Amino acid sequence: MKLCMIGTGYVGLVSGVCFADLGNEVICVDKDLNKIKKLKKGIIPIYEPGLEELVLKNYKNKRLKFSTNLSDSVSKSDIIFICVGTPIKKNNNGADLNQIYNVAKQISGSISKFKIIITKSTVPVTTGDEIEKIISKKKSKKLFTVVSNPEFLREGEAIRDFIYPDRVVIGTKDKKSNRILKNLYSPLISKGAKYLNTSRRAAELIKYASNSFLATKITFINEIANLCEKININIEDISIGMGLDKRIGSRFLRAGPAYGGSCFPKDTKAIITTADKFKINLSVIKSVIKSNDNRSLLLLKRIYELLNNKVKNKKICFLGVTFKANTDDMRDSSSLSMIPALIKKGAKINYYDPTGHKKEFSMLKDVTFSEDINTAIKFSDLIIIHTEWNDFKSINFKKNVKNKKFILFDVRNIYSSDKMKELKIKYFGIGR
Ligand code: UDX
To answer: pTM of this prediction?
Structure first.
């Protein structure tokens, strides 16, 4: 099939490349000429394991093309995926849909034969209705249909999540589009993905409700971890015990720092704004946001306690600063609030991240970046394992840290408390 992905951010690029790899002809469009030039040279703008190889392979065999020309790409394609960003609005926490509506206007000028127009970006309920209105101002409804097909890709696992999704959700009541899209996704369905055809509005809401539910699950286990710390119980035993109940499930029950990233913080706020419009109080999600906002403060308090409230001039090392492992994404990472707070108290921060130096910290005095793990930890009084990269899983702390009284705060519970006890390392985890 001939596909056009508009927007070569995370969603558009990963989905476009994977669709090409499944044998489709895909044009990835972006208005950013520089980005497109780089993609044509095989330079990938984001860190995502496996993506570069897949881009090179499919670009070489000409199933994947890159372009800045939206109207030409739309007219050459049968299915158009809108994958542009829907950032949070500054004034009311809702999703900013300017880019979506601009793209819809541009598409409407380039339709001369039937097109399926799909929102893959996360968009609030009724956005599909608006897109339909915009396009129908210029084109007959016989020439197009607007479908919602939300993505559920996790950064760092995006390619695997695309190929082996739990479900493919298609929001349309149009039988022809449903048939075509079921066919497009048939290689994934035959590998076990469930296919759900529902209304467009339901598909839009499924995405927000799913992300809000996962954020709730994480926040719930984080609060239970706070209780575990007071009563000498290991949170992992609780997660395993709860997860064995099939109604609960074991995934997304790992306690840790505040959740972050490009989706959970944004989508939990946006669903509340949508509900407010309809005068519905989503009180559970509101408490989740509040609890998560509070989580970094709570961890900071714990750090001050670990240092006996003597933070001034303490050398603190962060291993990993992104919002989670296997990504270079800093969006809403808890390190963004924790590091400045520690500096304010007089700490000296040194960090290492497998994805390199971060511009977010370059203006901060007393924050330095180390090129490797051992240099980063060498002179530390306190080491904080902030993300769960494999690189951090077998560090010889005893050998490489000069200050023998160093403290290790493992906020991802990578190491075993017993092993650390044996090694006589002052070790602290989460919910233990
Ligand atoms: C999320 C959704 O999982 C994905 O389906 C959606 O399309 C985009 O948003 P992503 O933001 O890439 O994906 O990361 P995810 O792996 O879901 O983690 C989100 C946050 O939750 C991270 O901060 C992570 O550290 C945290 N998390 C996740 C936990 O603290 N514990 C867990 O058990 C799982």
So the answer is: 0.96
